[in-house]
Amino acid sequence: MVLKKTLAGTMMLVGMIMGLMFVSPYAVPIPQAQEASADTPGAQAFASVCNTCHSTDRIRDYQGDKSWGEIITLMKSFGALLSEDQAKEIEQHLQTTYPRDKK
Ligand code: HEC
Question: Across the 103 residues of the chain, what is the mean pLDDT of every consecutive 10-residue run?
């Protein structure tokens, strides 16, 4: 009887730990390896700067009417840290990767 209870307790603990393992990757906003195809300076700067606060999905799925230049200026006002050169490189990268009609 005592042994069975201990076993049940152990299984519950294992279950809880496994559950945490599934939850934790979403709780911690670590830059994703999915930007591994980054080979231009713009793509690299984008990967290291732009997904620190939100995922790149947020950017890929953007349907608003701001240009990428305006978006980058907006992100700077939110606290994104990037140099003038990086801003230009990222804008170039975004325009190539996710072309937008509006200038
Ligand atoms: C300091 C944190 C931070 C960084 C770094 C950052 N953003 Fe954002 N971003 C935000 C916040 C805050 C919002 C608004 C909240 C939201 O919609 O998630 C946002 C929203 C967005 C949106 C959606 C805007 C809309 O109107 O729907 C886009 C596109 C975007 N960011 C692009 C970028 C790009 C490109 C970069 C890299 C240059 C970047 N972000 C870096 C904080 C950041």
Answer: 72 76 59 58 93 93 94 97 96 92 56
Atom of ligand 1 nearest to the CA of 63: 27
DSSP-H helix ranges across 1-103: 2-27, 41-49, 57-60, 68-77, 84-97
Return the closest-CA partner of residue 40 out of 97, 81, 1. 97
**CATH class in words for 31-103:** mainly alpha
Nearest protein CA to atom 27 of ligand 1, as residue: 62
**CB neighbours of residue 70 within 10 Å:** 14
Domain map of the chain by residue range? 1-30, 31-103
